[in-house]
């Protein structure tokens, strides 16, 4: 029988983790989970329910409502997972600048992390999953057979996210994008709960000067190494 491994991909904001995870999952026939979408979903819920006003988050109010937040993914026509919040497709709304502004402050709340990590572990319990985020190799799947830690320089990450947002018709500036990425990286790396850091056994990939195909080929070469070392003929 085919034994499927778990692949954890972590790294800084907008460094192409989800793109790589999605392409790898397609190649291997694995499940792709964008854990950041789930933190964005909780943030959208807080915005929709007036739990964020004047830059202030009503943490107690959010904790009371946590059990009523249901998140799941469904595949669209192109087989890409889209996030549903309480049964409503929120895939585009979770990518808006206002959600990006508050998501790292929501993601530092312990109870939010406990809820989402539990759901993420359930999705990956049978293996055959590629999950990207900030704490996947360190906390969610510390025993993942392959861990990648992705980075790229800030100018390149800014340019990529700026183009992505412009292509979706959103209004923004490069300065605003850079400020958001830098702020999120700071909060994500310095928070008390599961801060963003490279797992000891993760492989570092700086994709600043790699094309998508080069990055995918490199990642696939690591997958093959794992397969060989575990004597798996197919993954
Ligand atoms: O796509 P992008 O790199 O902009 O970020 P994302 O993966 O959508 O994640 C959005 C935010 O969620 C991050 O900045 C973190 O604050 C939080 N996050 C987290 O804390 N832990 C994860 N496993 C994934 C995301």
* Small molecules in complex: cytidine-5'-diphosphate
CATH topology: Rossmann fold
Distance from N terminus to C terminus (CA atoms, Å) equals 10 Å
The secondary-structure class comes to alpha/beta
Low-confidence stretches: none
CATH class label: Alpha Beta
* Count of structural domains: 1
Integer-rounded radius of gyration? 17 Å
Q: Give the % helix.
A: 40-55%
Spatial order of the strands forming the largest sheet: 2-8-1-9-10
Strand-residue fraction? 15-25%
Order of helices and strands: EHEHEEHEEEHHEHEHHEH
Q: Describe the main β-sheet briefly.
A: 5 strands, parallel
Secondary structure layout plus pairing:
Elements (H helix, E strand, L loop, with lengths): L5 E6 L5 H12 L2 E4 H14 L3 E2 L2 E2 L1 H7 L5 E5 L5 E5 L2 E2 L7 H11 L2 H14 L5 E5 L2 H5 L5 E6 L2 H14 L6 H17 L12 E4 L5 H18 L6
Parallel strand pairs: 1-8, 1-9, 2-8, 9-10
Antiparallel strand pairs: 3-4, 5-6, 6-7
Helix pairs in contact: 1-9, 2-4, 2-5, 4-8, 7-8
Bound molecules: cytidine-5'-diphosphate.
Describe the structure in your own words.
- The chain is of the alpha/beta class and 235 residues long.
- The protein has one domain: P-loop containing nucleotide triphosphate hydrolases (Rossmann fold), CATH 3.40.50.300.
- The protein is built from nine helices and ten strands.
- It has helices at residues 17-28, 35-48, 59-65, 97-107, 110-123, 136-140, 154-167, 174-190, 212-229; strands at 6-11, 31-34, 52-53, 56-57, 71-75, 81-85, 88-89, 129-133, 146-151, 203-206.
- The strands form three sheets. The chain has a five-stranded parallel beta sheet.
- A hairpin with a 2-residue loop joins strand 3 and strand 4 (56-57).
- Helix 2 (35-48) crosses helix 4 (97-107).
- The protein is globular.
- The termini are close together.
- The model has no long low-confidence stretch (mean pLDDT 95).
